[in-house]
Specification:
alpha/beta, Rossmann fold, Dimethylsulfoxide Reductase, domain 2, 4 domains, 6-stranded mixed β-barrel, binds ligand MGD, binds molybdenum atom
Length: about 775
């Protein structure tokens, strides 16, 4: 671990610091040369898709695009370390339970299938045949297929995801919780009914044309570093970049582009945000509604003075629905509650709206700061309202841009990893594969935890991810997993979810993206879909980490062949030739017409996005304005009401610069000035004074929950966090995930989308041990 210190970082994001950090991580993984060579194939026409994030690649350029955190993800996969059966069996699971997430990850790549041996409390080597026989036996023994749960994390390729959902539906359930349920679920839920597609509408071309880019609740310097290149280019062109974030994030302030030789040599850097609004955690809905209100007020003035209209009245008349009721409710809305809830002054909200109204082509981007709240769907629909007011949808340089996380999380949904599949999709799937898909909706992530807790689900199978660490309410989730008859993890690395296991347990190692995938018909490529609906090929070029690894499609095929003895699907033949899987995808999903041909083009192809053509696939055939009153009954208010004697804060949980979700690469968060620590709480200086503590003190965090009816009152605790003074509004705290997941109540999730509210947890602080 690096030296522990808290020290203000005032350099730019990127720059030489980023290059140094990559060299360090490649060395640490023991792959200085192999890793560097591997990186040269990232996002290349004939290379692999970077497993770092879902931000698109600029034309899959032929020159290597440097990205610090993409490089860390690649180095983690290409590591020289091996978690052989001997390494894993060297400790009992009780002993592994004491290891940190960092230590579990550091064991390296898993090399052989492992089965849990209750006699010795260890994972032991097993054979693939034995592993599939155990899965088949357990699944077939269940009286109801809905007693099995099939989780997916968003790194899974289209081909693997398609086979996986087919297997699970032939088996008989729609129990498909996925990481999206904790991530951009509200974006899909908010966008589908309003613009007819549950995805973003823009492309990188639009980023080149926009004259204003709004960034809500996103930290691209850490989580989508290549996005900074687009923001920087836009800023240099004179576009406004407006950030809405409670925390001052270095990457949203200044960036030194490692692509820019002159800038690197002169230690120069470029500003990113032209304007920065530090709103309250959870203040976005009020801010956005205020911005809409101001735009309407500006239009009133323009109309009165005979000036050009501020609203795009032609667009609204031709394309939109529900404008009159939206307008009427907006006029009723008074300013005070908007100001109070946003944490910004009325002048600031008006300024943000004036900047928006003064721009011709506006893109709105958002991330987890928007989605992981109780009222996230309404907030996203308020973003849509704001865009609709000035026709900023479906034209060049404008649109909605939910910035997805995992590199294929969007594609997995397209492939049918969804607990609430559309009937038309199921019809087609059944027709193409000759079976009757189950129709009842399955469980999502929160529902899966609940089902396991209730004993309604007994087998848990995970295609990637780290369910035990990523989900809310750690104590409840662990109880849920431990109650299972069987837990199965398909994975590249050893992680927490393998340590928190069912009565029987399997850990099944697979190939990673960077590796050659050799099947009966030769080396295979897979496809992925990025955040802007671009679908393209990905093929690895490193030798597999072990000769025993299966590819994800082959693993699914063998699991299916073992389990579904009456299936008409030629499982092994499909997994022997991924082009044949793509033919089946095309047969089920019309948007993939000519799939195998289209992916031959470098950079692939874009899936049709009706909203970006101003074709609205909504019931009314129009884009919908959504009317939402200010939410009144907020969890933090209920808690403050009941606990009048203590100071209640709103805690938001986020990512450090040295992690990929639950994978901890290191203990530094360079841009926030944290070194050698992960258990920190960022707090405003005045709040520190108020509670009689100082930076450097250690505290315990208690999460308080009061249910909607006021009846269910619960407390959760996480201990020993270091207080760090930070530029964050009063009343708000920030800390890292997954360490804070024990604090997220299982029953607290977003309305309709059911995303855990991990960005707004009511908490109190107390001196550690005090
Ligand atoms: N290196 C790296 N890259 C990643 C990941 C990773 O862990 N590491 N994770 C991937 C995944 S799965 C995802 S989903 C994305 C996540 O990428 P982001 O969406 O950037 O995720 P977070 O780090 O959770 O934080 C989001 C930002 O929201 C701000 N925020 C917190 N609360 C609020 C609020 O109430 N309102 C507003 N406006 N802002 C708020 C925080 O200060 C922070 O800057 O990144 C992906 N890329
Ligand atoms: N409190 C709080 N909780 C959160 C969030 C938050 O902001 N705050 N964010 C949420 C979000 S946005 C997300 S997306 C989820 C993430 O939830 P998950 O997707 O479940 O978690 P990850 O940490 O991304 O999963 C990492 C694991 O994936 C496996 N893996 C890596 N590569 C591969 C591969 O190629 N194949 C296979 N089969 N396995 C692989 C490795 O075992 C690795 O340990 O967490 C959510 N949880
Ligand atoms: Mo995510």
């Amino acid at each position: 671990m690096s030296e522990q210190k808290i020290e203000l970082y005032d350099g730019p994001a990127g720059g030489w610091g980023a290059l140094k950090s990559v060299a360090h991580h490649l060395n640490e993984q023991g792959v200085a040369v192999k890793g560097a060579k591997t990186l040269l194939h990232a996002n290349q026409p004939d290379g692999f898709d970077c497993p770092g994030c879902a931000w698109p690649d600029r034309d899959h350029r032929s020159t290597f695009e440097f990205c610090e955190n993409g490089a860390k993800a690649v180095a983690a996969e290409a590591t020289a370390r091996r978690a052989t059966p001997e390494v894993i069996a060297a400790k009992t699971l009780a002993e592994w339970a004491e290891a940190s997430d960092y230590e579990l990850e550091a064991t390296g790549r898993l090399t052989e299938p492992l089965v849990y041996d209750p006699q010795t409390d260890r994972y032991q080597r097993t054979s693939w045949d034995a592993a599939f026989a155990l899965i088949a036996q357990q699944l077939r023994a269940l009286p109801d297929p809905n007693e099995a749960i099939f989780y997916t994390s968003g790194r899974t390729s289209n081909e693997a995801a398609f086979l996986y959902q087919l297997f699970v539906r032939e088996y008989g359930t729609n129990n498909f919780p996925d990481c999206s349920n904790m991530c951009h679920e509200p974006s899909g839920s908010g966008l589908r009914p309003t613009i007819g597609v549950g995805k973003g509408t823009v492309t990188l071309h639009d980023f080149e044309q926009a004259d204003c880019i709004l960034v809500f609740g996103q930290n691209p310097g850490t989580n989508h570093p290549r996005m900074l290149g687009e923001l920087r280019a836009a800023r240099k062109r004179g576009a406004k970049i407006i950030s809405f974030n409670p925390l001052k994030e270095r990457g949203l302030e200044r960036f030194a582009d490692p692509q820019d030789k002159l800038e690197m040599l002169t230690l120069g850097s470029a500003p990113i945000s032209s304007h920065y609004f530090q709103l309250q955690v959870g203040g976005d809905f009020a801010l956005l509604k205020g911005m809409c209100k101001r735009v309407v007020e500006l239009d009133d003035v323009a109309l009165a003075m005979g000036l050009p209209r501020v609203l795009d009245v032609d667009f609204i008349a031709e394309h939109a629905n529900g404008f009159d009721s939206f307008l009427a409710e907006l006029r009723e809305q008074s300013w005070e509650p908007l100001v109070a809830a946003s944490g910004l002054s009325r002048e600031q909200i008006e300024q943000a709206a004036d900047l928006y109204a003064g721009s011709e082509r506006v893109i709105a981007c958002w991330g987890m700061g928007i989605t992981q709240h109780r009222h996230s769907v309404a907030t996203i629909q308020m973003i849509v309202n704001l865009l609709l007011l000035r026709g900023n949808l479906g034209r060049e340089g404008a649109g909605a841009c939910p910035v997805r996380g995992h590199s294929n999380v969007q594609g997995d949904r397209t492939m049918g990893i969804y607990e609430k599949p559309a009937p038309a999709f199921l019809d087609k799937l059944g027709e193409v594969f000759g079976f009757a898909p189950p129709r009842a909706h399955g469980v999502d992530t929160v529902g899966a935890i609940q089902a396991m807790l209730d004993g309604a689900a007994k087998v848990f199978i995970a295609m990637g991810g780290n369910f035990a660490a990523a989900t809310p309410d750690t104590a409840a989730t662990w109880r849920a997993l431990r109650q299972c008859e069987l837990t199965v993890h398909i994975t590249t690395k050893f992680n927490r979810s393998h340590v928190v296991h069912g009565r029987k347990a399997l850990v099944l190692p697979v190939l990673g993206r960077t590796e050659i995938d050799m099947q009966a018909t030769g080396p295979q490529g897979v496809t992925v879909e990025d955040s802007m609906s671009m679908v393209h090929l990905s093929a690895g070029m490193n030798a597999p980490a072990s000769e025993h690894l299966l590819s994800e499609p082959m693993l699914v095929a063998r699991m299916a062949a073992a389990t579904l003895t009456n299936s008409c699907t030629p499982w092994l033949a499909l997994a022997g030739d991924y082009a044949a899987i793509r033919d089946k995808i095309e047969a089920v999903l019309p948007d993939f017409a000519g799939f195998n041909e289209k992916i031959k083009a470098p950079g692939g192809f874009r899936l049709r996005n009706t909203a970006s053509e101003r074709a609205w696939a909504t019931p009314s055939g129009r884009a919908e304005f959504s009317t939402h009153a200010m939410p009144t009954d907020l969890a933090v208010e209920r808690v403050a009401e009941r606990h009048r004697d203590v100071r209640v804060f709103t805690l938001t949980t986020l990512r450090s610069h040295d992690q990929y979700n639950t994978t901890i690469y290191g203990h530094d968060d360079r841009y926030r000035g944290v070194y050698g620590h992960r258990r920190v709480v960022f707090i405003n200086a005045a709040d520190l004074k108020d509670i009689g503590l100082k930076a450097g003190d250690w505290v315990d965090i208690t999460s308080l929950y009061v249910g909607e009816t006021g009846a269910d009152v619960e407390q959760r605790r996480a201990e020993r966090f270091l207080l760090v003074e930070y530029d964050i509004p009063r009343g708000c705290l920030a800390s890292y995930y997954p360490e804070t997941n024990p604090l997220v109540p299982l029953q607290s999730f977003s309305v309709t989308a059911r995303t855990p509210t991990s960005k707004s947890i009511p908490v109190t602080l107390a001196r550690h041990g005090g």
